[in-house]
TrEMBL record, chain A:
GO terms for molecular function: UDP-arabinopyranose mutase activity. Probable UDP-L-arabinose mutase involved in the biosynthesis of cell wall non-cellulosic polysaccharides. Belongs to the RGP family. The lineage of its organism: Eukaryota, Viridiplantae, Streptophyta, Embryophyta, Tracheophyta. InterPro entries: Nucleotide-diphossugar_trans (IPR029044), RGP (IPR004901), RGP_fam (IPR037595). This is UDP-arabinopyranose mutase. It comes from Trapa incisa.
UniProtKB/TrEMBL annotation, chain B:
Its main location: Golgi. GO terms for cellular component: cytosol; Golgi apparatus; plasmodesma. GO terms for molecular function: UDP-arabinopyranose mutase activity. This is UDP-arabinopyranose mutase 5. Belongs to the RGP family. The lineage of its organism: Eukaryota, Viridiplantae, Streptophyta, Embryophyta, Tracheophyta. The keyword Cell wall biogenesis/degradation applies. GO terms for biological process: cell wall organization; UDP-L-arabinose metabolic process. It comes from the Eukaryota. The keyword Acyltransferase does not apply. It is found in: Golgi apparatus. It comes from Trapa incisa. Keywords: Cell wall biogenesis/degradation, Golgi apparatus.
Length: 364, 348
């Protein structure tokens, strides 16, 4: 690292990144994001009634998909995409042709840092994704690649190259992402603490991945970002991003990829109804007690050399070990397979290229 | 989750004195130290008399005391290792130890940080090593467990070690500081978090606190560099000890926290000069880390002493042949447990 140089300018990546936004209401929030989002292509996934018109503010370059589009494009495989739940956003990941995806909820706005400056969340996510992760040894000064930080005394030099970063998990000021019981007990709690850190989540450690402010390298990990079966006709909601996060973390750990969490913050404005949330989460609260040991103990074999292979192996184990918890998991396991089939159909060349890249990497 | 407030007489503050004039150090820390009992241990190699201001409840130990109390031993209490003698003679549940070249830091609002109170808070609230909470320490005011955090894991486990951080001169190694001579840590990260189980970290001795009853014997002066010096760049003992403590905590189901509190560390020493000595330490880390990552302790090791004995055996077996420094470390670890047991069984 050069001593005393000016911080590098973060590339815009405007032709390499898509912003995926699920919405059922409107996209008014985009006005506030305009200075940061306008250079990028948007993929809007319209949930709910397809006959409703969602107005996109002027000046944005976008493609919009409603339920009719999803059914038309995927045919019978559309069954894996949730309806009446923001989990439908993962359809946007599938149809994107870019290397990176940033996804954000339509009730998330630009936050301010402690100096009062507007936070360019996308720029921070890009910084996170373009610098390595360090999952094998915890650095007590957090992300060592940030300006003004470094590896501490005792950090092995052989681990200082890090590994590629697959996911950048951002946080939220104002309305915190609490579950329904916590919301009911603390309805007025707001997250006002700006923690000026990015850090890698260590290998072997699971975390609750929130989809409100999330970026990832689609080429490295895209097929693992399936947000499950939620919403209409399903016994559970508000576990879409959690499910994707646990699968993604297990696969990243297996393939030697990193996940970062921390900055950037966005401003989360809308508190959802805790009673509605409780109904959605209810089963999940019990099921997660089984799911967590499952994910903590899951082992992927050496021949799982691509994300798709890892994911299909996971789906097999979900069926075998979680099917007995509830029949929902049999359906989910099938949907996971459908998702990969659909992903590979819509992204044919990438599947082979990714496998080749990983194979080349392994043989170095 | 509320805990009974900790009594002042459950805490010892242990300061290893590597400099003789501690007047400004103690005056700066007075507001935070004066409620507690202090154990000052003078570096056996330091010739000058210690200068400590009045108004503190303290015991000072010098080379003569160390020799008299411990008796004949292969353990060296020279330099930064002198503080371990303080850990040994303490009879308290909690120990806080800070290097004598550190000052109280200021937080982002410009208020001085009570590092002692923060360490006590860290040690007396649960740790959460089995699942990462994205809002960091869920027991802090204004924070909680996030959506998706399993309810069965929300009681947490006892926190045995609290690792604080440093503003200004960060605890970087000599090569890094030599490459970036003007780099100073100005970033106050307002977080405490639990280091997940199975994740290792470099534990810096500059600003730490621990539950002596739970893990006391697991902090030891065992891995000495051939030319260990009087600046942190020229030592590795705390890093080695700290990583062993983490392995032991993981085994015993105890937690390790990192983050707040910060202390402000004085500029001192010459990183380029230290490069020559610390290079040895840097090389040793390459062997130490893979070894510790794969170390499994037997189920029968139920106390910190048991764990240290088991680790010493494995260190000797697996690392002893690659470098004599590891063989000595293993012997020191066993010797430490022997001394510890002797001290503990002595009447107060």
């Amino acid at each position: 690292m050069a001593a005393g140089s000016r911080p590098a300018v973060t590339p815009l990546l405007k032709d390499e990144l898509d912003i995926v936004i699920p919405t059922i209401r409107n996209l008014d929030f985009l006005e506030m994001w305009r200075p940061f989002f306008q250079p990028y292509h948007l993929i809007i996934v319209q949930d709910g009634d397809p006959s409703k018109t969602i107005k996109v503010p002027e000046g944005f370059d976008y493609e919009l998909y409603n339920r009719n589009d999803i059914n038309r494009i995927l045919g019978p495989k559309a069954s894996c995409i949730s309806f009446k739940d923001s989990a439908c956003r993962c359809f946007g990941y599938m149809v994107s042709k870019k290397k990176y995806v940033y996804t954000i909820d339509d009730d998330c706005f630009v936050a301010k840092d402690p100096s009062g400056k507007d936070i360019n969340a996308l720029e921070q996510h890009i910084k996170n994704l373009l610098s390595p992760s360090t999952p094998f040894f915890f650095n007590t000064l957090y992300d060592p690649y940030r300006d003004g930080a470094d590896f501490v005394r005792g950090y092995p030099f052989s681990l200082r190259d890090g590994v590629p970063t697959a996911v950048s998990h951002g946080l939220w000021l104002n309305i915190p992402d609490y579950d329904a019981p916590t919301q009911l007990v603390k309805p007025l709690e707001r997250n006002t603490r700006y923690v000026d850190a990015v850090m890698t989540i260590p290998k072997g450690t699971l975390f609750p991945m929130c989809g409100m402010n999330l970026a990832f390298d689609r080429e490295l990990i895209g097929p693992a970002m399936y947000f499950g079966l939620m919403g209409d006709g399903q016994p559970i909601g508000r576990y879409d991003d959690m499910w994707a996060g646990w699968c993604t973390k297990v696969i990243c750990d297996h393939l030697g990829l990193g996940i970062k969490t921390g900055l950037p913050y966005i401003w989360h404005s809308k508190a959802s109804n805790p009673f509605v949330n409780l109904k959605k989460e209810y089963k999940g609260i019990f099921w997660q007690e089984e799911l967590i040991p499952f994910f903590q103990q899951v082992a992927l074999t050496k021949d799982c050399t691509t994300v798709q292979k890892c994911y299909l192996e996971l789906s097999r184990q979900v069926k075998e070990k979680l099917g007995k918890v509830d029949d929902y998991f049999n359906k989910l396991a099938d949907a996971m397979v459908t998702w990969i089939q659909a992903w590979d159909e819509l992204n044919p060349a990438k599947a082979d290229a990714a496998a080749a890249a990983l194979a080349n990497g392994a043989s170095k | 989750m509320s805990q009974a407030p900790i009594k002042d007489n459950e805490v010892d503050i242990v300061i290893g004195a590597l400099r003789s004039d501690l007047s400004s150090f103690f005056n700066e820390w007075r507001a935070y130290f004066s409620r507690f009992h202090l154990i000052i241990v003078k570096d056996p190699d330091l010739k000058e008399e210690l200068k400590i201001p009045d108004g503190f409840n303290l015991n000072v130990y010098t080379k003569n005391d160390i020799d008299r109390i411990v008796g004949s031993t292969s353990i060296s209490f020279s330099g930064y290792s002198c503080r371990y003698f303080g850990f040994l003679v303490s009879k308290k549940k909690y120990i806080i130890s800070i290097d004598d070249d550190c000052h109280p830091a200021k937080d982002n609002k410009g208020n001085f940080v009570d590092a002692v109170a923060q360490h006590i808070e860290n040690l007396t609230t649960p740790a959460t090593p089995f699942f990462f909470n994205t809002l960091y320490d869920p027991y802090r005011d204004g924070a909680d467990f996030v959506r998706g955090y399993p309810f069965s894991l929300r009681n947490g486990v006892n926190c045995a070690l609290s690792c604080g951080l440093w503003l200004n001169l960060a605890d970087l190694d000599a090569p890094t500081q030599a490459l970036k001579p003007s780099e100073r840590n100005n970033r106050y990260v307002d977080a405490v978090l639990t280091v997940p189980t199975a994740a290792l970290l470099p534990v810096s001795g500059i600003n730490i606190a621990f539950d002596r009853e739970a893990v006391g014997p697991a902090l030891f002066p065992a891995l000495r560099l051939a030319e260990e010096g009087k600046v942190r760049w020229e030592t590795i003992e705390d890093i080695w000890s700290g990583m062993c403590v983490k392995v032991i905590c993981d085994h015993l189901g105890l937690g390790v926290k990192t983050g707040l509190p910060y202390v402000w560390r004085t500029d001192r020493g010459d990183a380029v000069e230290s490069l020559k000595k610390e290079w040895e330490g840097v090389k040793l880390m390459e062997e130490v880390v893979p070894f510790l990552q794969s170390t499994m302790l037997p189920v029968t090791a139920a106390t910190a002493e048991d764990c240290v004995v088991e680790m010493a055996k494995t260190v000797k077996q697996q690392l002893g042949s690659s470098n004599p420094v590891f063989g000595h470390a293993a012997d020191s670890m066993l010797e430490w447990v022997r001394i510890w047991k002797t001290m503990v069984s002595r009447p107060s």
